[in-house]
Amino acid sequence: MSCWMPGCPALSMCRGLAALPITCLERAKDLKTRLGILLHKPELGHKTGSSSKLQLGSRQRDTSREVLEWRESFDQLLKSKSGVNAFHTFLKTEFSEENLDFWLACEDFKKTRSKTKLASKANRIFEEFVQSEAPREVNIDHETREITRKNLSGATSACFNEAQAKTRTLMEKDSYPRFLKSASYQDMTKQATSRGTSKRSHT
């Protein structure tokens, strides 16, 4: 398109483009090329979407199976990351999440290899969860508390074993049965069961 008349829009546009830096024009061309490639390959987006749907379906089946396994035993619940998260959310409603947090802290503590880190972690866990009037004091007896205190003098990966076992038993006998009867878990099992039924009806 060309025009030599004064005030011609085409002439104004050409002058405007000429005033732009070369790098801007090159970037615009590059962008146009990339857009053209994407527009001519719609099948790429289609394949990606299908793959995502398949992965999501598989993930939902795995989660449904896990949810139903949580009621088999407390161990099954603790083995599942999503189970631990669901149980933690429930414990918050009862204001007793410190028991699970302490148990998880102990599990992490056992994996510590450095002796220096072991000692500092042990003191931090004791101060936060075990000592009398700790900010997040767990419900253990005085004798277990004192045994744990003595264990700190020569901290090993086993120094919280007794306190952790007592806390675990408390959760298993007290909080876990209530969790299984809770409305939130009942809703989760209904959804998991309905997904399983739906899957069977389509096969």
TrEMBL record:
Region (Disordered): 182-203
Start and end residues of each RGS domain: 73-189
GO cellular component: membrane
Annotated keywords: GTPase activation, Lipoprotein, Membrane, Palmitate, Phosphoprotein, Signal, Signal transduction inhibitor
Organism superkingdom: Eukaryota
Record membrane topology: Lipid-anchor
Single Gene Ontology BP annotation: negative regulation of signal transduction
Functional summary from the UniProt entry: Regulates G protein-coupled receptor signaling cascades. Inhibits signal transduction by increasing the GTPase activity of G protein alpha subunits, thereby driving them into their inactive GDP-bound form. Plays an important role in the phototransduction cascade by regulating the lifetime and effective concentration of activated transducin alpha. May regulate extra and intracellular mitogenic signals.
Stated name of the protein: Regulator of G-protein signaling 16
Organism: Pomatostomus ruficeps (Chestnut-crowned babbler)
Name of the gene encoding the protein in the UniProt record: Rgs16
